Amino acid sequence: MPSNRSGYVRFETNRSFTGMGHESYRVDEEIYQDRPPDQIAKALFATGKAAEVHVYSQTVTVKLRKGDSAGLKEVLEDLYTYYKPGVEVPTPESFGAEG
Q1: What is the C-alpha separation between 41 and 60, in angstroms, rounded?
Q2: Confidence at residue 96, expressed as pLDDT on a 0 to 100 scale
Q3: What is d(CA 76, CA 64) in angstroms, rounded to the nearest whole number?
Q4: Which of 31, 42, 60, 91 is the most exposed place for a label (fewest CB within 10 A)?
Q5: What is the tens place of the pLDDT at every residue in 30-63?
Q6: 3-class DSSP state for residue 48?
């Protein structure tokens, strides 16, 4: 959905990624971890369209580089879809959980 601020776009998802925490990322800064908000930022930066990403609970706000936001929604929609053909469903062990 468009933001009130020019050059930004906001996405509301159906799951919380950070709880009550805020996570902010800039395209020129390395992302060292691989938590859900980290994965979101990495995927959005990989499109070449995002300059900054902010994740708060289920809301993802993107400061755009030049251009439009085409394709960013699809990146978020596909990021945690495990029921597509050929995509392996993660197990608790794949997240480091102990049985």
Answers
A1: 9
A2: 66
A3: 15
A4: 91
A5: 999 999 999 999 999 999 999 999 999 999 999 9
A6: coil
Six token digits for residue 63: 């400061």
The token duo for 67 is 């251009």
Q: Parallel, antiparallel, or unpaired for β 59-64 and 22-26? A: unpaired
Q: Give the pair of three-digit tokens for residue 77.
A: 């929609």
Task: Determine the residue type at 39.
Answer: Q
Mean predicted confidence (pLDDT) in 9-34: 94
Cα-based distances in Å from 76 to 62, 85, 97, 99? 12, 18, 25, 29
DSSP character string of 8-23: EEEEE-SS-SSTT-EE
Across the range 60-82, mean pLDDT stands at 88
